[in-house]
């Protein structure tokens, strides 16, 4: 009606709405034209060809962006390679799963040097959180059956995360990971850690308050009053920590505040736990919770002497979660060697996540820059802690 009589109407405003559309991913070829020249006067001279750009896959056709997409799709979005194979075919690029696997291998070869540098930096930090998680892998020596490998995870709150693949959880796996580390070692109660500390006088073991608290939470169902009392005392410690975090209290002052504010609560906590253990069956949930707390008492209260530490290792446990989500999709790594590849990629993706870096943008940029570098290059600018997109 307005269009029929435009002179009869005046515009007084508008109303807007929207709908969301999607443009499916598009795979395309980028062609590099390299001009070739021949000397006019001296025809005996060989032709001159413009140099080829440095590329992450020698003799292949995968660009840095395609490698980044494949890597992030598997290790961040948890898409197994056989699903990626089908998706690429649907988009007009029939690329085999074996080819994708080879690309992942080349990505990790490029990126391994960055993870080694991150590992070295962590060992110099003086405060490490550490944990380990099982991952099944296809065992070539057992006729297609799977065995259990382990991802050992080293981290510093607010800093990098480094995953290390090992075939077992044996105590002997730990010293090669920590080498000549000196400082605070913060972990759960696994026996390998206090054993390592006992042999290294420059290392101080700190236990995790969340693990101690978790056992009383499990006992809450059976002894709500007694377990609840212990949980309220532990909550006081976290209450103070939250206040100090808000005020951005530094390590030296935090240590002094812990000694002064924690002391009454810790004294009451220990007395109550001793009494509850005496009154509980040793194998009951409450009895086991009390025994765990008291057996780790020294390494728990040691936080008062070291203001750098967090009270728990939730930080490193959260870094492990993406690998467990991925395992639900790809179920197991296809070969023990693939565990090393997963460790390299998870180290970089988790370190990016902590800093709010888009992992696809990071890998695309890093994989474009690494091929032009050599063994004498400074790789520090490519570490997630220092990385900035190339202009």
Q: Strand-and-helix sequence, N→C?
A: EEHHHEEEHEHEHHHHHHHH
Radius of gyration: 28 Å
Number of DSSP-assigned strands: 7
User: End-to-end distance, in Å?
Assistant: 53 Å
Beta content comes to 5-15%
Shape: globular
Main-sheet strand order equals 5-4-3-6-7
Structural key phrases:
48% helix, single chain, 11% strand, 391 residues
Can you walk through the features of this model?
It is a single chain. With 391 residues, this protein is α/β, with parallel strands linked by helices. 48% of the residues lie in helices and 11% in strands. It has 13 helices and 7 strands. The strands form 2 sheets. The chain has a 5-stranded mixed sheet, sandwiched between helices. Strands 1-2 form a two-stranded antiparallel sheet. β6, α5 and β7 form a beta-alpha-beta unit. α1 packs across α3, α6 packs antiparallel against α7 and α7 runs antiparallel to α8. The protein is globular, with a radius of gyration of 28 Å.
Architecture blueprint of SSEs:
Blueprint: E1 36-37, E2 48-49, H1 64-75, H2 81-90, H3 97-123, E3 127-138, E4 146-155, E5 161-166, H4 174-178, E6 183-187, H5 192-198, E7 203-207, H6 209-219, H7 224-246, H8 251-279, H9 285-295, H10 297-301, H11 314-330, H12 336-354, H13 359-369
Parallel strand pairs: 3-6, 6-7
Antiparallel strand pairs: 1-2, 3-4, 4-5
């Amino acid at each position: 009606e307005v269009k029929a009589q435009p002179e009869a109407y005046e515009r007084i405003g508008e109303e807007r709405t929207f709908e969301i559309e999607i443009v499916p991913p598009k795979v395309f070829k980028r062609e590099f034209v390299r001009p070739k020249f021949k000397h006019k006067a001296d025809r005996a001279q060989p032709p001159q060809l413009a140099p080829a750009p440095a590329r992450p896959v020698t003799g292949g056709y995968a660009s840095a962006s395609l490698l980044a997409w494949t890597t992030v799709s598997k290790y961040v979005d948890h898409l197994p390679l056989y699903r990626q194979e089908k998706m690429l075919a649907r988009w007009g690029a029939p690329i085999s799963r074996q080819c994708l696997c080879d690309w992942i291998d080349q990505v990790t070869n490029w990126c391994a040097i960055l993870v080694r540098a991150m590992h070295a930096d962590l060992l110099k930090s003086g405060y490490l959180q550490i944990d380990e998680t099982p991952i099944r892998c296809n065992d070539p020596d057992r006729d297609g059956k799977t065995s259990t490998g382990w991802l050992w995870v080293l981290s510093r709150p607010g800093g990098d995360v480094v995953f290390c693949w090992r075939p077992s959880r044996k105590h002997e796996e730990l010293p090669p990971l920590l080498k000549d580390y000196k400082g605070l070692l913060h972990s759960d109660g696994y026996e390998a850690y206090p054993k390592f500390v006992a042999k290294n006088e420059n290392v101080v073991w700190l236990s995790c308050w969340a693990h101690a608290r978790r056992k009383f939470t499990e006992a809450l169902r059976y002894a709500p009053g007694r377990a609840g009392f212990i949980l309220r005392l532990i909550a006081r410690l976290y209450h103070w920590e939250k206040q100090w975090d808000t005020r951005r209290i530094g390590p030296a002052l935090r240590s002094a505040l812990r000694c002064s504010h924690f002391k009454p609560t810790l004294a009451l906590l220990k007395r109550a736990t001793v009494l509850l253990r005496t009154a509980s069956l040793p194998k009951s949930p409450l009895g086991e919770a009390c025994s765990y707390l008291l057996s780790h008492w020294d390494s728990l209260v040691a936080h008062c002497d070291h203001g750098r530490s967090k009270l728990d290792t939730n930080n490193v446990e959260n870094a492990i979660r993406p690998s467990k989500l991925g395992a639900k999709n790809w179920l197991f790594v296809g070969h023990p060697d693939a565990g090393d590849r997963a460790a390299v990629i998870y180290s970089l993706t988790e370190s990016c996540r902590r800093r709010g870096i888009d992992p696809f943008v990071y890998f695309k940029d890093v994989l474009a820059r690494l091929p032009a570098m050599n063994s004498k290059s400074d790789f520090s600018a490519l570490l997630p802690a220092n990385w900035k997109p190339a202009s």
